[in-house]
Amino acid sequence: MLREISCPDCHWHRLVATGEKLRLLHQVGMLRREENPDSAIIEELFERNGSKLVCGECGRVGLRIDYPRDDEEDWGDGRVCEQCRKTIPAERLEIFPDTKICVACQQKDDDGEDDTMPDYCPKCGEIMTSGTSRGGGLTRYRIRCPRCG
């Protein structure tokens, strides 16, 4: 289940899934001995330990944990960008009613800038790395966990 973590001081925010939650719990000293914990345990510990989590921008200890906003907002409210979570201006929505991202994120996509979050290992929460396979012929790329293999 996705959650949004945010800093009350600098307004940094990020969406996290189960693998990232597990990694954050390991950082604050939870579940160190448990190799493959149940997802319900991860969710419960994550909810209870928001006060121990550290902001990725300013380093403040104690983050707010919320459910991500729904894609369907009430009439009259602005739509939120799927990438940066900022409100999309009404003028843009009038011109492009089906748009899901703001002008700044659209510009990054058009310029080829990749501002996506990394993939995390579902077992240990480590950031996945890409590499090439060994052998002759075509070069094949694969994503793997440096810890689990």
UniProtKB/TrEMBL annotation:
Q: Report the domain of life of the source organism.
A: Bacteria
Taxonomic path: Bacteria, Pseudomonadati, Planctomycetota, Planctomycetia, Pirellulales
Q: Which residues form the Zinc finger DksA/TraR C4-type domain?
A: 78-108
Keyword Methyltransferase found: no
First and last residues of each zinc finger (dksA C4-type) = 81-105
Organism annotation: Blastopirellula marina
Q: Any idea which UniProt keywords this protein has?
A: Metal-binding, Zinc, Zinc-finger
This protein's name: Zinc finger DksA/TraR C4-type domain-containing protein
Q: Which Gene Ontology terms cover its molecular function? A: zinc ion binding
